Amino acid sequence: MHKTVAEAKKLAQDVIDSVADIDGVDVVLCPPFTALAALSEILAGTNVGLGAQNMYFEEQGAFTGEVSPLMLKELCQYVILGHSERRQFFGETDEGVNKKIKVALAHGLTPIVCVGENLTQNEAGETNSFVGGQVKAAFAGLSAADAVKVIVAYEPIWAIGTGKNADAETANSIIATAIRGVLASMYSVDVAGQIRVQYGGSVKPANVQAYMAQPDIDGALVGGASLTIENFLPLIKGAL
Predict the structure, then answer these.
(1) Which CATH superfamily includes the segment(s) 49-195+209-218?
(2) Longest dimension (CA), the chain
(3) In this structure, what are the phi and psi dihedrals at residue 46, rounded to the nearest 5 degrees?
(4) Are 160 and 223 within 8 A, CB to CB?
(5) Mean pLDDT of the chain
(6) C-alpha pair distances (Å), 21 with each of 8, 18, 47
(7) pLDDT for 43-98, tens place per residue?
(8) Which H, E and C letters describe the chain, residue by residue?
(9) Where along the chain do its domains lie?
(10) Are 38 and 5 in contact (CB under 8 A)?
(11) Is 155 one of the annotated active-site residues of the chain?
């Protein structure tokens, strides 16, 4: 929950100017709902994509305060679903996230689906089983053709906004086992390899290259470090 419309427009323009000549990295901004329309205009025709931070699974109806896929598809291409803060503070469930994924895909939106364990689960050695369960629930009922359109973000809850992070090798091992391994069992090794998997959780300019060097990490879901161009641009370049 950051950035007024004016602030979001300024950051978006800074990003556009900074990445105009950068190839090989997909850059997507996910501002608050209030800034989507303004950024949709600014980003049109650029090499920067636009995503929403959440979405409801109904197209319309008496759901005051919610935002539907019909509203989003006019403005953006991506939508973050099942972020840990949505699950923790607003009671989102695996079943609800699965519904959202299916609806997003049906309307041509690319879901960025978040999975991750809390500190208690991590310390108890339950990371792989818990994250694997989230992945199974998220992809339940999806065909292979739809599965490869989904982006998965592994974001250990204990690393978000804490300054702590899973080291690159550990994050890669969890992604390889609990995400790609589970997806391979649901579909095939080939399908699992086609699904883009990101890491999120205190990603910074100082550590982004270590994550991007890992074979099973395809990108980063960036939080606080994306709020200023001074921090965000080094992350984008680090992904190269």
Answers:
(1) Aldolase class I (3.20.20.70)
(2) 48
(3) -100, 180
(4) yes
(5) 95
(6) 21, 8, 9
(7) 999 999 999 999 999 999 999 999 999 999 999 999 999 999 999 999 999 999 99
(8) CCCCHHHHHHHHHHHHHHHCCCCCCCEEECCCHHHHHHHHHHHCCCCEEEEECCCCCCCCCCCCCCCCHHHHHCCCCEEEECCHHHHHHHCCCHHHHHHHHHHHHHCCCEEEEEECCCHHHHHCCCHHHHHHHHHHHHHCCCCHHHHCCCEEEECCHHHCCCCCCCCHHHHHHHHHHHHHHHHHHHCCHHHHHHCCEEECCCCCCCCHHHHHCCCCCCEECCCHHHCCHHHHHHHHHHCC
(9) 49-195+209-218
(10) yes
(11) yes
Number of Cβ within a 10 Å radius of residue 162: 12
Q: Which of 7, 155, 169, 230 is catalytic?
A: 155
**Do residues 1 and 53 lie in contact, with contact meaning Cβ atoms separated by under 8 Å?**
no
CA distance 122 to 156: 9
Phi, psi of 63 (to 5 degrees): -130, 65
Report CA-CA distances (Å) from 94 to 57, 64, 87.
13, 22, 9
Residue at token pair 């982004």: 208
Has 83 been annotated as catalytic? yes
**Whole-angstrom distance, CA of residue 127 vs CA of residue 99:** 24
Query: Which two tokens mark 223?
Result: 């939080």
Query: Catalytic: which of 83, 85, 117, 230?
Result: 83
pTM as predicted: 0.96
Residue type, 157: I
